[in-house]
Amino acid sequence: MIRADAADLPDDGARKTPDRLRRRVSRLLSQLTARSDRLITEGLAQADARKWHYAVLASLQDFGPGSQATLSRRTGIYRSDMVGVLNELAEHDLVERAPDPDDQRRNIITISAKGRRQLRRLDKVLDTLHDELLAPLNPTERDQLVELLNRLLDHHAGTA
């Protein structure tokens, strides 16, 4: 369960965060993001994975093979960081690299059978972590939250 930071609680256990701060969506999102990131990072580390591993494997599974540049666009991982992520995945035989038949300077990345198994395993890990993160919300509220967050992201990304 996610609890308030110790800094939010005085000795008597009462919240000391001003209401005006508790009503600021930007602050709430920022604080929840920090807690979510910590929970997900630690949970995936226990599964010997990182969030970028999951993003690349999910992209390859859902959209098929792609170049490093394509994967960078699909996942939001900087191109300069993508090589390192792919190296880690390749070291564990989770992806395969092959020269692009149309451009020998470029590699095409494909998820391997072992990568598909790892993705299913990570889906279960993330389901458990999200249940912990969203524990106070019922299934309908969780769906509404996801819908609202996607709407905001799409709007600000210009894809709405």
Residue share in β-strands: 5-15%
Amino-to-carboxy terminus distance: 33 Å
Order of the strands making up the biggest sheet: 1-3-2
Shape: elongated
Fraction in helix: 55-70%
Mean pLDDT: 90
Structural class: mainly alpha
From the alpha carbons, calculate the radius of gyration and give it in angstroms.
19 Å
In DSSP terms, counting alpha (H) and pi (I) runs of 4 or more, how many helices?
7
Number of strands: 3
Relevant terms:
160 residues; mainly alpha; 3-stranded antiparallel sheet
Report on this model:
- The chain has 160 residues and is mainly α.
- It is 62% helix and 11% strand.
- The chain has helices spanning 19-22, 25-46, 51-63, 68-75, 79-91, 113-133, 139-157, and strands spanning 66-67, 95-100, 103-111.
- It has a 3-stranded antiparallel β-sheet with strand order 1-3-2.
- Helix 4 (68-75) crosses helix 5 (79-91).
- The chain is elongated and about 65 Å long.
- The model has no long low-confidence stretch (mean pLDDT 90).
